[in-house]
Design goal:
Blueprint: H1 2-14, H2 16-21, H3 24-34, H4 38-54, H5 64-81, E1 86-91, E2 97-102, H6 114-130, H7 135-140, E3 142-147, H8 158-171, E4 176-182, H9 186-195, H10 201-204, E5 207-211, H11 213-219, H12 236-256
Parallel strand pairs: 2-3, 3-4, 4-5
Antiparallel strand pairs: 1-2
Length: about 260
């Protein structure tokens, strides 16, 4: 609590307008990541606010169900534009939220206009929100699991990766527990060599290449958080239900929590 109050006081002194709209829940989320470094938290807060503005992410209305539905619809629209990209979503038996996706379904060439790119990044932002519905989730860290089978250069955009890295390592307050890459062919390793330029040592240390189904099945349980394509039981409908439920929980906690 002391870390969060220090960040809140510093933000009030530096940017009263931003301090007035930031929820106490968000302050604590930043505090859990930055710990006793308020200046580090303030930098991340400013970056995240700039990211929201740049990608037309509207402030929360205060209506929990409405806010959750808006965020969910943004994710759903991206999934409809790039079908099969999101594979599963849920919380493992160690308390880590997990999101899995298929790289070969991501086709940056289909995203052409500035508005389409804004909506794409807004969707990823809302996925991060869904993965942090409570403070335990923030403390435990998240797992990103990517299936790289049949990936090719048409699935890669250096510009996208640069902006995505800014979100998940510089702006959004997140602790990466693991970033696991399944079925990594040589072409993916070439892509990763380019991407590493934008990554911090802390993020690179979380990346695991050459993962196998055996490793995933050993480490990620229950199987209900894995898609049927990964040997789990979660259907596409169940994935969407889990994302919406997590968003509703997050926005409910944001509305009710006070320092």
């Amino acid at each position: 609590r002391g870390w969060a109050l220090a960040i809140k006081d510093a933000l009030k002194a530096e940017d009263p307008e931003l301090a007035a709209v930031l929820r106490d829940y968000e302050i604590v989320q930043h505090a859990l990541i930055a710990k006793d470094q308020p200046e580090k938290a303030l930098k991340r807060i400013r970056r995240l606010q700039d990211f929201r503005k740049d990608h037309a992410i509207a402030p929360l209305s205060g209506d929990v169900n409405e806010d959750a539905q808006v965020a969910f619809d943004t994710i759903k629209q991206l999934e409809e534009n790039l079908p099969g990209m999101f594979l599963s979503f849920g919380k493992d038996d160690q308390g880590h939220y997990l999101c899995t996706w298929r790289y070969s379904a991501f086709l940056p060439g289909k995203i052409k206009t500035k508005e389409e790119w804004q909506k794409c990044f807004a969707a990823f932002y809302h996925v991060f929100d869904a993965m942090h519905p409570d403070f335990d989730a923030v403390r435990n860290g998240i797992i990103m699991l990517g299936d790289c089978e049949r990936i090719g250069w048409r699935n890669f955009s250096l510009e996208f990766e640069k902006h995505a890295a800014h979100l998940y390592q510089d702006a959004y307050p997140v602790r990466h527990h693991r970033m696991v890459m399944l079925h990594t062919p040589l072409v993916f390793k070439a892509m990763y060599a380019l991407l590493k330029v934008f990554l911090s040592k802390k993020v690179k240390d979380c990346v695991e290449l050459n993962a196998t189904f055996d490793m995933v099945h050993r480490d990620m349980k229950p199987y209900s958080i894995l898609s049927t394509t990964m040997g789990g039981t979660q259907t596409a409908t169940e994935m969407k239900q889990e994302i919406l439920k997590a968003l509703q929980l997050r926005y409910s906690n944001m509305a009710s929590f006070k320092l």
